[in-house]
Amino acid sequence: MGKLRPMEGNEAIAEAMRQINPDVVAAYPITPSTEAVQIFARFVADGQVDTNYVAVESEHSAMSACIAASLAGGRVMNVTASQGLALMWEMLYIAASLRSTVVLSVANRALSGNINIHCDHSDAMGARDAGWLQLYGENVQEAYDNAIQAVVIAEREDVRLPVMNCYDGFLVSHSYELLEVEEDEAVREFVGPYKPVRPLLDVQNPYTIGPLDLYDFYHEHKRSQWEAYRPAKQAVIEVGKAFGERFGRSYGLLEPYFLDDAELVIVALGSTAGIVKDIVEQRREGGERVGLLKIRSFRPFPAEEIADALGSARALAVMDRAAGFGSGFGTLYPEVAAALYAGGKQVPVVDYIYGLGGRMVLPEEIHQVYNELAPVAASGHPEQLTRWLGVRE
Amino acid sequence: MNDDSYQCEKCQKAEVYPPDAGWRELAPGGVIPQAGNAVLYETGGWRTYRPVRHDDKCIDCLFCWIYCPDMSVYVNDESVKTLGFDLDHCKGCGICSAVCPTGAIEMKLETDLRAEEASAAEGAGE
Ligand code: SF4
Ligand code: SF4
Fold first, then answer.
1. How far is the CA of B59 from the centre of ligand 2 (A)?
2. pLDDT band at A49, cuts 50/70/90?
3. What interhelical angle do A9-20 and A34-45 show, nearest 10?
């Protein structure tokens, strides 16, 4: 049995890392993820883990070291946010292309400019096509649980892809919550020892990694990488289920909330889902058929599952905490709309860009979204496809 | 998908994939399952200048062998003496020539040498 303990998000991430006891952590701390690295560094200094902690001079170097350590055959973890993730950008693609199994927790924070330290999803969304898996947690418990599951998903032999464990900066990273922290032994047993398929440190069986790859093979290599996201989806489902069987908290690609008969549905990522759940309950008491679809796995993107889950919906609102500048939409909207279109679902969908740079999302605003969805469901046509929520006009 | 080795059915060579290998045959991560196959990729064609050694000046110090970035200086393992250049891979960078303490290595234009070689071959044919 786990123990209930009060912790903030960063502390819970560090705790999960201590229990997992990775071989290498190469980190360059950045707000709002700093404490996770700071607390973990203390575990290293106090000899509570066997981790080789590499203090590097930038996030670019951090990710470079992580990739190398992972390919060498180590279990590797790291934490970052915002500009740090942005500085890792070119290495992120390499981490996925070379099929490293790095687990990177990201305390989601707005990208500059202007400089801002608070939550939005522009950092991770900027890396959405890098080939990493991305899980979004709603609260401290989920950030902790996802950190543990991410290791198992990343290292599965049929997956072998790096995973980002996204949790909202400040809203989760710095919020104290009572969470169930599992026993060290139970966590270690759940993640098991890492069995790398082809460690570079196996000098008896050398091979060539990251060679020049031109028009004669690159195309086929990308096609081969493309295929990995199918077993990855299966891994997210199976590991989430196994985690539930072991610890009593099950996870999947999506979390439907009062969705079976819901007509007005909000689609959201991260901590906002918690607020929406509250409003759904309130409005359900008034007899309204409202629901929430929380997307936990943004990569792999569960397109078919989203179309299936929204069977009864008559109008949808996608909550976007990152603006897709120039696209006319946020970053989540086009993917949800494409999933519905591909699934043959004709439902009007409105995009709400909200909460940028840590702008607080208020319960009234979620009410406003449901209020605005009702006429959209009635007419079948939104007046405006993209709206900005909580912005001063 | 095979991580450990690749045995090409067509050519029976383990070192490289055949040029028409489909994506399903390739090991994950775009790796080449074997090491040491750079030898199959000939870079000698990139050369503008070719190193030419004047044997009378060479003192077998092995500086050229140590400094050559392409491992293109042949050395006899027994006598530990330089033998010449691997012209299939030497890119003509001239580092060997620059580090040679006795000035034994002259960098000559590849086009001139080829013209000389061609006319020599013609002469021999007559
Ligand atoms: S010219 Fe450059 S590549 Fe060629 S043998 Fe000399 S050092 Fe090596
Ligand atoms: S560096 Fe010059 S002298 Fe020394 S081994 Fe090479 S050619 Fe000979």
1. 6
2. very high
3. 40
Nearest-by-CA chain B residue for A221:
B30
User: Would the pLDDT of B12 be above 80?
Assistant: no
Tell me if residue A375 falls in helix, strand or coil. Answer: helix
CA neighbor of A25 nearest in space, from A93, A92, A104, A108 = A104
pLDDT digits 0-9 by tens, A220-230: 999 999 999 99
List of residues 6+ apart from A291 with CB closer than 8 A: A256, A257, A258, A259, A260, A262, A264, A265, A266, A280, A313
Global pTM reads 0.91
A232, A247, A262: which is the final residue of a domain?
Answer: A247
Which residues lie closer than 8 Å to B40 by C-beta, 6 or more apart?
B15, B16
Write the pLDDT tens digit of every residue in A279-312: 999 999 999 999 999 999 999 999 999 999 998 8
In angstroms, the CA A308 to CA A392 distance is 36
Phi, psi dihedrals of residue A73, rounded to the nearest 5°: 120, 10
Test the B interface: residue of A208, A212, A229 with most B CBs within 10 Å: A208
Chain B residues touching residue A201 (CB < 8 angstroms)? none
Instruction: Name the domain count of chain A.
Output: 2
Decide if A98 contacts A228 (C-beta within 8 A). Answer: no
CB contact under 8 A, A208 and B30: no
Partner B contacted by A105 (CB < 8 A): no
With CA atoms as reference, the chain A residue closest to B6 would be: A207
The answer on A106 and A178 residing in a single domain is: yes
What ipTM was estimated for this complex?
Answer: 0.89
Residue A125 forms part of a structural domain:
yes
**Three-state secondary-structure class, residue A136:** strand
How many structural domains compose chain B?
A: 1
**CATH number of the structural domain spanning residue A184:** 3.40.50.970
Helix (H, G, I), strand (E, B) or coil at A160: coil
- Classify the C-alpha dihedral A312-A317-A321-A323 as positive or negative: positive
- Rounded to the nearest 5 degrees, what angle is found at the Cα of A325, between the Cα atoms of A362 and A299? 75
- Longest CA–CA separation in chain A, Å: 69
Report the pLDDT value the prediction gives residue B123, as an integer from 0 to 100: 81
Judge whether A114 lies within some domain.
yes
User: What is the per-residue pLDDT across A186-243, written as a single tens digit (0 to 9) for each?
Assistant: 999 999 999 999 899 998 888 889 999 999 999 999 999 999 999 999 999 999 999 9
